[in-house]
Each structure stands twice: as C-alpha cells, then as structure tokens.
Structures
1.
Amino acid sequence: MSRITHIFSDLRQANKVGLIPFITAGDPHPDVTVACMHALVRGGANIIELGVPFSDPMADGPIIQRASERALAHGMNLALVLDLVAQFREQDASTPVVLMGYANPIERMGVTHFIKRAQQVGVDGVLVVDYPFEEARAFGEQLRQHDIDPICLLAPTSSDIRIVDLATVASGYVYYVSLRGVTGSAALDISSVDERVRLIKRKIDLPIAVGFGIRDAQTAQAIGQYADAVVMGSRLVQLLEETPHDQVVQSLQNFTMNIRVALDSGRNK
C-alpha cells in the first residue's frame, strides 16, 4: 500500500477530509522550502503538493507564475527539487509528497532518470499538467513500476469517455479542477462542483481531491462536504509572497491549521 493510499484509508476511517496544500519549491527562497513543508504537516496537511518551477506554467495564474519566476531566479531546477524532497524525508518518512509540474523539465532530465531519482528520494506521486493522454498512459505505467502514483487531472469539460479512460491510468487520487481557467481564478459554483464530483465517483474508484479556486476556510469546508480532499495552492503561495522572510514558516503553519480546523468541524456537522 502506497503512502497516499494509506493516508486516504486513515482519513476514511476517521471520517476526515484530506488537506493537500501546494507550494512552489524554492519560493520564496530555497532555504525555507523544507521548513515550509514541515510547517504544512504541523498545520494538519495530509499530503504535500510540491510545485516544480517552470518558465511557462500555462495552467497557473499570476500568483503561481510569480512563484515560479522567483524560484527560477534563485537557481531552482528539477534536480534541486528532488534534493529538497530528500532533505524533507530525513525528518518525515510518512507524509506523502506529490510533485506537480510540466513535462519539459522531466523530458530534459530524462524520464527514466527522473523516475528512478524520484523513487530514491521518496516521492509518492507525480502530476504532470501538460502530457497528452497517450503519453500520460505510458508515463503512468513507468511511475507505477517504481511504486509512484500517477496523479491525473479531470476538468469540468472532461467527457464521460475520458473519465473512464483516466481510470485506467490514475492511482493514488484524482485531482478535479473545479473551474475553467487557471489556478486561483474565478469563484466556485459549489453546487456544480458537487454534481460533477458525484458523477466522477460513480466512474472512478479513487479518492477525489478538488482544487483551483479554494482560497479560504469557508470554501474549503463547503468543498469538504463531498470531496475526499481539498487542494489549496494560490492562496498559500500568495501568503508566502506577502509575508516577511523570517515569518513565512509560522504564517504558513497558522494558515494551514485554520483550514484544517474548518475541514474537521465541517465534516462533523
């Protein structure tokens, strides 16, 4: 059983919603990324999505775009991101880490080398935003051969056929993009997300994590009524952007803790 599967099993038994925060590796500076990851866990995160900075993050809004730019300016690259995961694992052997990013850095490193190194440092899942489905299938098979879950995206526009096809590729959990557009954009229509998640659950026997557009405790709590996990990214990255360097770790922990409390109280209503 993978760490991700184990986490969702524990969450189901405890009747809890998973909390999956996203931060960009190397932002606001590489010297605080690992400390921020530990702060997220202390705040109640169940899985960490760690963004791999990329120069053309087309699925991301301006907040996460700026985070990638800052990280790249500090010299961050995929090899260093993997080194940060290795450092995190020195103190935390149980919290799943999912790398989220784009195909270009992986292709540049070499898919086989990347997957072997990811397994070595303790990566649990990989989500690549821009692999075409056919390439995602082959990539996912390679990941699973090295005990890494391929995390797949579904959108509001995904057809029933695509949902069924994706079920043959994905493992760990499915990330449902709750709105059309880029990360951090627009406001959620909770009822339409609810309806869509229910449909996906009828076709895929995996936990469903909902992300894009979740910016506060109230929205997270509402999504948590029917999703297996909520993903929060842009709001956390914005917090790191706005907070003085010496306060980012504690601020991140406090914010995450507030979301955790909201999720737990919402599920217990």
2.
Amino acid sequence: MTSIALLGAGGKMGCRIIDHLQHDPEYQLRCVEVSPPGLANLAGRSLAPTPLDAALAGADVAILALPDRVLGKVAHEVVPKLKPGAMVITLDPAAAHAGELPARPDITYFVTHPCHPSVFEYEEDAAARADFFGGTKARQPIVCALMQGPEADYAKGEKLARAFFAPVTRSHRITVEQMALLEPAMAETVGIALVMALRESLEEVVKRGVPRAAAEDFLFGHIKVPLGIAFNRVDFNFSDGAKLIAEFGRQAVLRLDWKKVFEPESVKEQVRAIVEGKFKAGQ
C-alpha cells in the first residue's frame, strides 16, 4: 500500500483526488486540511484531517494540491520532513518551473496536469458531455513530467496520475519546460485571452442591439466551424472572403509580436506572475 500525504485535501483538486483514491486498496490517504470549507468537504466524505507532521511521517508520496501562490512556501516546509526516496507531486508546472521547489536530491519531483476533455471527442453519456473539466465522467488525456528522481519513478507517478485524473485515455511524457509552454503560455496566456475576447465580442454585439439568443447561437456555431477547419478535422476550407477578413482581424486584434509569449524568458515571467499573483501590465 502506498501512503499518500494529500495537502489541500479539502480543495477542488484535493476532493477530486480523494473521490478517485479513497476506496482504492493500493493507496492509504492522509488528508491534510485546515480551512473550514475544506474540513467540511472532508467530513462530507467521511474523512477526518491528519496533522501535517503525522501525514508526512513515512509517507511514500506527498501531493501538493495547493494554489500556486502558496505552493512554494508549503513545499519548503514539507519537503525537508519527507523520508529519502519519497515522491512529491505537483498538479501544475508553474511552481516547479519558477524554481519554487526546494532543492533536495534524494527525493523525486513529479509534475502532472490534465489536458481536459477535447472539443473534438464525443461522449455518448450525457453526464460525460456535461463534465467540461474531466476527471469525473468525461475521458481526458494527461501530461506528465519526471522533473527529478530515478527513471523507475516515472511509471509510479504516471500510474498514480492516471488513477486520480481518471478516466484517462492516454498519457504524454514531456518535460516541465514543455509543460509550461502548454500551460500557462499556450492554454492560458494565449488561449484564455482569445476565448475571453470572443466573450467580450458577444457582449459588444448584444450591447449594440443584437438579441442575446441570436448572438449566442451564431457565435457558438461559428466557433465550431473554424475549429474544424483550422485543425484539419473537416475536408473543406475557409472561403476567400473569410480568409481575407480573418487577416484583417488578426492585424486589428493581435500584436504583431504576440508569439514572443513562447520565448523562454517570457514563459519564466508568466510562471513567476502566477506564483506571485501579479504581473506588470502593458508588457
């Protein structure tokens, strides 16, 4: 049985992990939680919190299911108390890539993150279709990185990640640096910014008199078609007029040098902003 100290056990990700592992005979969960809402979430799962030192004593794995802004600080408290050979798992690359994890060569650092359910995957089950995040009903791929530790520990970490992110379709092995390119750079810095621009465009046309229902139906359909074309999921292309006006829009909406967000120094800046909770506007 693998003993797991789960920090932030009563939070959103902590509860997702508990729901997958609580009754798995391969794992013994030691739940660390201090917030009243988190304690209530544990009680609702018939679990009691374990004091931090007791949870860490002899633990095989410590999962830091914590917000990025506090993860580094907690890691500096937790890591020195772990036994040699223990594995520390983070659920996001930000703290790891920002250098927030303390140096200790005799433990393993494993970083993993869900890809979330694909817009191109169809789920037969209605509950799975309603699971936008994944890890409850909908299937999803995951990414994993062995940041530090013996090669054999990759399989151990991936097995655990597959268990608590289930149902998992496939797992991709990448590096922490590559994971930071995926998130925050690609999925959040660029992806969320563009998605929120779409939302703002919807609100703008509604403000200018278009009925909301009509605007939503039009936009949601016109999101699906370009996605299919741009990612080669259909056998037709944009019209000449659409190509022309899309280029007009690209020049009007995007900075010409927007791809600099993928440069190593920019990615570092992004993860630092996440762990510090602030960024310099206008950069």
3.
Amino acid sequence: MRRRTALGLLAVLALSACTSSSSSIAAGARNGGVGFVSGDGTIEKLAPASRTTSIRVQGTTLEGAPLDTATYRGKVVVINTWGSWCPPCNAEAPGLQKTWELVRGRGVQFVGVDLRESAASGRAFQRKYAITYPSVGDGTSIQLQLKGKAAATPSTLILDRRGRLAARVSGQTDASTLSGLIDDVLRDSS
C-alpha cells in the first residue's frame, strides 16, 4: 500500500511538472518558452516538378480586412507564422520586414499568420517591429489551410506563382536566407 501511495504521489508530481501555472501560451513563453514548438531552422526546397502541395490562405487581417492569397496568383507569396509571445518570432521580425521592403517590387507578397492571440496583441507586435505587410488572425481553419507545413513556430512558407509550396523554413529564419530562397523561387517560376 505504501508503495502505491508513493507511486501515486510521483505520478501527480510528474503530471504537475508538465503543466504550466497558466493556461496562456503567452505566459508560458514568458516563463522560458514553454507552450510552443520551435523549429530548428531546417530548410526544405522543392524543385518545380516536385511541387504538389497548393496552399491558399483565406482570413481576416488584424485590421479587419478580408485576405485571400488566391488574389496574389502570379506572385511569389511568403507566408510567415508568428506570435508576439514567441522569442524566435520577435528575433526574426526585423529581418522579415527588411526582406519584404527589398522584394515587394519584384512580384513578391508577404502574409503573416498571427497565432493564438488577440488581434490587439498582434497589432502591437506589428507596430513594435514596423511590419507593413498584412497578417491574418489565426484560427483552426488557417492552420488547416497550411496543410501541416507550418507545425513549428515560427515557420516560413514560400509559394510559387501558382500557389504551390516551393520552399519552407521550420523555425527562425534571417534576411539573407529568406532572400536567397525567394530569389530561387522567382527564378524557377518565371
């Protein structure tokens, strides 16, 4: 009986260690990054003949306007998932904005997907980093629209001019890597 009690107590302690004192992902991130899966920066590039996954994101921007990436057909589309509660997302935000400013006149459109927070928190993040490309608020429908290709936070997907997944970064990226991937997709899909 004593052994069962000890095992039961150990199980309770183990389970309590797996939970956070707050159910909020933002609170978990403040307490050491608990509450989200961060990628390791793995890059996947697909040759034009291997691009079989089409992705279309439809939603409402953080400012309340409708957005549909199908309206960007003919452009290379960069989709970045982020959250203000995510340290790697905060680290990569300035590089994303810098890259957007450099490539937007070359037939490229950026779209952010703000994960698991209020539109007000997302807009504050956009102001903090002077993000000028649109972001849609997350919902289960948007996660489904990404077809499992953005499991880590952050993730960056690059769609070719036909809306097919051409490259992705699972985890934090930087301006140099992202610019190179965009250049490759622009070259492959011209």
